[in-house]
Amino acid sequence: xxxxxxxxxxxxxxxxxxxxxxxxxxxxxxxxxxxxxxxxxxxxxxxxxxxxxxxxxxxxxxxxxxxxxxxxxxxxxxxxxxxxxxxxxxxxxxxxxxxxxxxxxxxxxxxxxxxxxxxxxxxxxxxxxxxxxxxxxxxxxxxxxxxxxxxxxxxxxxxxxxxxxxxxxxxxxxxxxxxxxxxxxxxxxxxxxxxxxxxxxxxxxxxxxxxxxxxxxxxxxxxxxxxxxxxxxxxxxxxxxxxxxxxxxxxxxxxxxxxxxxxxxxxxxxxxxxxxxxxxxxxxxxxxxxxxxxxxxxxxxxxxxxxxxxxxxxxxxxxxxxxxxxxxxxxxxxxxxxxxxxxxxxxxxxxxxxxxxxxxxxxxxxxxxxxxxxxxxxxxxxxxxxxxxxxxxxxxxxxxxxxxxxxxxxxxxxxxxxxxxxxxxxxxxxxxxxxxxxxxxxxxxxxxxxxxxxxxxxxxxxxxxxxxxxxxxxxxxxxxxxxxxxxxxxxxxxxxxxxxxxxxxxxxxxxxxxxxxxxxxxxxxxxxxxxxxxxxxxxxxxxxxxxxxxxxxxxxxxxxxxxxxxxxxxxxxxxxxxxxxxxxxxxxxxxxxxxxxxxxxxxxxxxxxxxxxxxxxxxxxxxxxxxxxxxxxxxxxxxxxxxxxxxxxxxxxxxxxxxx
Length: 660
Description:
Elements: H1 2-30, H2 33-36, H3 38-62, H4 69-74, H5 81-86, H6 92-113, H7 119-143, H8 167-196, H9 201-232, H10 243-268, H11 272-294, H12 308-332, H13 347-379, H14 387-404, H15 418-424, H16 426-443, H17 450-471, H18 479-488, H19 491-516, E1 518-524, E2 529-532, E3 535-546, E4 550-561, E5 564-569, E6 572-576, E7 581-585, E8 587-591, E9 594-603, E10 609-616, H20 620-637
Antiparallel strand pairs: 1-10, 2-3, 3-4, 4-5, 4-6, 6-7, 8-9, 9-10
């Protein structure tokens, strides 16, 4: 009965979405306030029905109802309760249900908290949002129904993919979807603005908090996915340039550009055409990621293998929404007007430079990801585009952007003084040079570019602190006055500084792990010892054990430094009986922000075991920086100015302006 309730709730959600598409849009056209108000009621109701469907599927997993095909294929009665719940979105059908749940959730949020929006704009935003939801409801009901029954019901399930039975899966997909799907609100705002012809500073302020919330979630989701792959897959890396990884990186890059562009639009009513286009492209890249994961064109640990029908259906959704949005943009963009004029050397100019490098980097990832697929589809030839391509193209685009980052917040709006800003950054620049010198002296050789990477990271962090120091007049007035100024700073200023500081932290972690990491691979017998970076690793033996739904072989290693035992590590290999699949459980020993990483290979005929040991200096800074970025975005999101409408433009700015 529960699966039928879930299925029926999904059908009702589709019906409400169709009403939400048609009635409010017609109300806007006919200026009927009653019809316009329908959207405010249907959006929360639609979310409640999708939530009911999701709850029904979750109940089937918890109860191990194997009469439901989706539960049979992805669960097992012996699986721990946590992984029964996370198994709901550990498959194609369930993850699509989570996708539309979050989509409806954002629509409901706009309905409830968008009180400061003009009613006509709000109705159009919710109508566009419902059209996206309706398309994916149809996709689920026609090709990916999670409530399909099995008759007769099997006694036991096939279990979830073992690599997905991890705490990281409980966190990573929901966060990633909050980011992916959250950008749909920016898209809906852009389409509504094009339809209504309303693009001004108020529009930019309305769209910024939704974009920022999605960006924060996507930032943390990508970081969580990176860390999950790092410790769960046993390969010791944190980024592989996998096409599905790239599919999440592209909307993040575009969303970052959108956030900065919206600031210019809000402050100067400039870059309207570009900001609207970025809002469309950001969500379009999210849809592209959905297609890559679910169409079957990719083979990846992240991807869901699907039949061609699903791929064609999603491709049709992409063509309709992306193609339709771009056609509407081409038709309406020429009538958009620009606002204030500014000099190239200004805060606006710095933000434009930011956008140029971010979009160029995004385009590089786009080409590197899709070109092999397009070439294979056209000619049948198979090529591999991996890390060397991205490192040689993506990296050089980011270096000048990172170097320019501390300059932007210190430049004045409209017309800036680059020499004056450079003078204020002298201390930060000096600290960066000292970091380079200290790195060269401390390492006494090693990778040539590594010290410059450290210096750049320190310069970025010191530049973010300089921004706060300048705003609070630190050392130029009394400490009491500086503290008073600090208390009066808007939260968005603190959030921006923290996010920029976090970029330096992440860069420092990347440089440390890639340039100074060490690796040792060996076949070891009990009692043998190998050394790596001042650490001695002694293999003491192997033990067999059992978990709820797996058998385990765990090796024991004593780790010593300078003759003293500092830790014991127990990496393991697990065999899941239901799927007869093996996973590697790496052992992680944390030493400050460094980690020792041990993973096991196969047991050799002579009784030795293959062991891979890594020393990863500064590696935890990679994910700490991502968390700080998210916290910076959240701090900015809490700024009251993002929750109220933009101020009305002055009379001088109400006069007609030339087209952008």
